TrEMBL record:
GO cellular component, one term: membrane
Organism whose genome encodes this protein: Sulfuricaulis limicola
GO MF annotation: an example: metal ion binding
Keyword Nucleus: no
Protein name (record): Peptidase M48, Ste24p
Domain Peptidase M48: 58-246
One biological process term in Gene Ontology: proteolysis involved in protein catabolic process
Swiss-Prot/TrEMBL keywords: Hydrolase, Metal-binding, Metalloprotease, Protease, Signal, Zinc
Cofactor: Zn(2+)
Pfam families, A to Z: Peptidase_M48
Source species, domain of life: Bacteria
Secretion signal, residue range per the UniProt entry: 1-18
Amino acid sequence: MIHLLLTAVMAGASAGCAMNPVSGTPDLVFMSESSEVNIGSTNDAKIREKYGVYDNPELQAYVQQIGQKLAEQSHRKNLGYHFTVLDSPEVNAFALPGGYIYITRGIMAYINSEAELAAVLGHEIGHVTARHGVRQHSAATATGMVGAIIGVATGVRVSQDLFNVLGNAMLSGYGREHELESDRLGAEYMARAGYDPQAVIKVIGILKNQEEYEKKTAAAENREARIYHGVFASHPSADKRLQEVVGEADRYKTLSAPYVGRENYLKQIENLSFGTVKKAGVLVGNRYYLPESDLSFDFPKGWSVQPALTSLTTVSMASNDQQARLQLDIHDLDKDVTPDEFLKRHMQLNDLPKGESVKGLSQPSFTTILPMASGFSANETRVTVMHYNNKRLLLQGTAKTPGAFATADRVFLALAGKLRPLKAEEKTAVERRGQGQRLRVIRAVSGDSFATLAKKSTLEKYSEETLRLINDKFPDGEPQAGESIKIIE
């Protein structure tokens, strides 16, 4: 019976086949191009709200211009492409289906030329043109269909969270084959647009150095590493497969001397914000401040913030032993919806376990424990919803083991009762501290070294290594007299 049902499912799935715009071969997809564009358009607002759009119209226009120049050479030039610089210190770039492409100011600090920027944007355009997001979504849909049929036949329920599958792929990568395909396509679009496709190898080498160093410092600080998904395990200088797919683009070159645009790019990123700024929260001592939401709380002892997972509307924390995690999400408040009703809608639950209000809070609240499995934990999750001024706060805490959860649950409940607004003197101090650093471009003079420049920098730690990384001089390069270099003030 199961065999017959699976055969029926696959027969129905074949009806969803379409021609892949890159390869010209059939694709198993369950989404029209108009639906694909609608997904991008619908979720664009969510991405902008979560990360924030970097407030620099000139830089936004510059990135849009370079992106469109590449998109015009792509296999799907008919799409209305949108390129946005996000106000995030994360080192990342990603794409939504339908032509919505994002690059963070964090990754732009490590790029050193227009050609390298084109390499990152071209890679993300490649994901769109090859419909990697759509194919990921369709594969998950097929899995969900098969799971439903198996459930009917066996009584075993199989579920699939399609949004999480697509979201994880966007931010963490689609696997080596799809990433290589995007590198190949991006290199082709670069060559056709007048850039040297070897800039793909160059920028991946820079980001690989950043990744390796970031992983070491993140491990020492017990936090998540901030790395770009389009980088493989091996260094590009030793990755023959990567070199081969990029080398294929040489036949598409339109210029004998492809454009690099180093000085023009450095001019564009002059005064770029570097690191965390006040909107994303400021940690002073053991207290965390969110000025945009007029919210602060004492950071739990033995816990640390997870910068790579923190945005304008989210603060993620982890215990130093990495056994427990806690996430605070900030939502707009609809006063007509009670905390428990919001939780049911947000979690898509028909019923909630017995819960209670958070002790010590005057505004409406609700807290309970849900039997919720995740990639991190197959145990319980403490979920708390609170009204806070004109915001709704959602706290979700989980742990790897039942014992770790029992210990961490006291932290989850205690934090909920410690949230408070900023005091007047705190607002002034946080405003001053939270401005963040700025990237400046200077002309190196004889005698300059990254050691001496680091001493003048406002970077509090790893300053010499950071300057080398953002200038592609890691691990031991030095500035040359007359060379334009980036510093952090």
